[in-house]
Structure to design on (495 residues):
């Protein structure tokens, strides 16, 4: 049987030629031939039948557009991608399939990325290839749509992996990712350096054996078996547990152990992220701060005791209120100068030369009346205040009664090291002042010098009132011979 069109198209030819031509064009569905048992019907398939079978079995969606951009054919895969039936798709405009920009045929024959609208309201990333062609004098456009969701997901996973790896490589703390069984799946560079062997694949407790910093923390850790600790770290959030690691690389270092759950897109916990933050320097700073606070407390109490004692004894030895005011202010000023020195040197100490220059500046040390001579000596901070008070008493006495009270009087301060540099001997010698008769007089100043040198400087003071002038010899240790906890509260004890 030949179609009507074939019969009309072969009018100038004979019937056999017309039949062959019709079969060649695919316009014949079947022919009737005379067989051994009589006439037989043989079905013929058109040239487009394999194409249709192939298109229907494609893993990509496919459709055909007419010249107006309306869908005239879709395969079953496209129905699956959109969630729509053939009847719902045929006749629709091509543009209605997409969210956002509608793909167009490209001159380089390459595909275009687009978002395919689904019946459930979602969108599907697809790669769209298009080509316009003429078929039998009819212009049509062939389109294929490739599902890119799996590839996009793979790219997202790869990007997330690179992103996570970049974070881990840049992290300054030890960071590890645990699976639900407590095994390490990822580790930062710092974590790899901290572990005794490559941590990935190991249980956390194997890679980082923990030890509590305090007795209570050690007690907490001992309540966990290795398995339960790994399980807890992988599933439970925790913060601020100070720990140490029992391995050679982390010996003497302190860490802050913290962790939190790792969830996937479905908000399901798939493991945890655990960090070990090195807090060694912070712990040392805290310990140093504790020592400084205790030292400050000790010094404040000491200063208050000194002020109380100086005030009381100055009051008893002063003939009048103006005299008390002058003497008391001078001694408090000496304490103030000493503390300024300690503050400027951050309580490290100061050279003896610098201390003499600062404390004796009001008495003319730079004017040629006070000479100093001795080797360089660095005084510890604990020596600055008591030695400043002694020098103030000597200078005040010299300016009121001794060498500095006369126009041509001189004070010479010399010193030398003794006992292999462990002790210092300093001599204060006055000459050219008023003649001292009767062995001089002793008051609170001499008492203060004696007690300060004996208790605060752990030394000895010899004060001679020679007729030509005072000679004061101070000998004291340059390094502490007692621990800070056993230092005397003050040489100047309140009454």
């Amino acid at each position: 049987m030949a179609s009507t069109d074939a019969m009309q198209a072969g009018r100038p030819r004979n019937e056999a030629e017309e039949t062959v031509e019709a079969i060649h064009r695919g316009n014949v569905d079947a022919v009737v031939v005379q067989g051994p048992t009589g006439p037989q019907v043989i079905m013929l398939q058109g040239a487009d039948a394999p194409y249709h079978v192939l298109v229907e079995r494609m893993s990509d969606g496919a459709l055909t557009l007419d010249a107006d951009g309306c869908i005239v054919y879709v395969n079953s895969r496209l129905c699956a991608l959109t969630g729509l039936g053939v009847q719902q798709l045929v006749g629709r405009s091509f543009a209605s399939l997409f969210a956002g920009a509608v793909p167009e045929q490209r001159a380089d024959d390459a595909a275009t990325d687009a978002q395919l609208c689904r019946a459930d309201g979602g969108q599907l990333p697809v790669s769209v290839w298009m080509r316009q062609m003429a078929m039998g004098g009819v212009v049509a456009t062939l389109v294929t749509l490739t599902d890119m969701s799996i590839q996009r997901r793979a790219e997202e996973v790869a990007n997330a992996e690179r992103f996570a790896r970049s974070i881990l490589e840049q992290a300054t703390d030890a960071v590890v990712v645990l699976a639900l069984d407590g095994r390490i799946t990822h580790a930062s560079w710092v974590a790899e350096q901290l572990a005794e062997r490559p941590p990935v694949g190991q249980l956390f407790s194997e890679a980082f054996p923990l030890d509590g910093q305090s007795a209570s923390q050690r007690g907490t850790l001992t309540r966990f078996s290795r398995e339960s600790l790994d399980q807890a770290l992988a599933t439970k959030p925790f913060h601020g547990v100070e720990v140490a690691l029992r391995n050679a690389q982390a010996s003497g270092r302190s860490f802050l152990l913290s962790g939190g759950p790792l969830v996937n897109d479905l908000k399901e916990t798939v493991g945890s992220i655990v960090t070990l933050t090195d807090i060694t320097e912070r712990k040392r700073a805290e310990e140093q701060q504790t020592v400084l606070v205790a030292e400050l407390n000790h010094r404040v109490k000491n200063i208050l005791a000194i002020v109380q004692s100086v005030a009381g004894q100055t009051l008893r030895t002063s003939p009048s209120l103006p005299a008390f005011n002058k003497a008391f202010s001078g001694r408090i000023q000496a304490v103030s100068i000493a503390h300024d020195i300690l503050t400027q040197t951050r309580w490290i100490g100061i050279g003896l030369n610098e201390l003499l220059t600062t404390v004796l500046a009001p008495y003319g040390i730079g004017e040629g009346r006070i000479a100093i001579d001795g080797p360089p000596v660095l005084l510890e901070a604990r020596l600055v205040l008591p030695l400043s008070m002694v020098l103030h008493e000597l200078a005040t006495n010299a300016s009121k009664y001794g060498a500095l009270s006369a126009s041509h009087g001189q004070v010479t301060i010399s010193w030398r090291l003794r006992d292999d540099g462990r002790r210092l001997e300093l001599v204060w010698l006055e000459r050219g002042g008023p003649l001292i008769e009767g062995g001089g007089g002793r008051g609170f100043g001499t008492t203060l010098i004696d007690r300060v040198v004996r208790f605060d400087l752990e030394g000895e003071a010899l004060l001679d009132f020679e007729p030509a002038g005072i000679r004061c010899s101070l000998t004291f240790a340059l390094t502490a011979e007692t621990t800070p906890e056993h230092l005397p509260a003050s040489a100047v004890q309140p009454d």
About this structure: The chain is about 40% helix and 25% strand. Residues 280-317 form the longest helix (38 residues). The chain has a mean pLDDT of 82. The two ends are 139 Å apart (CA to CA).
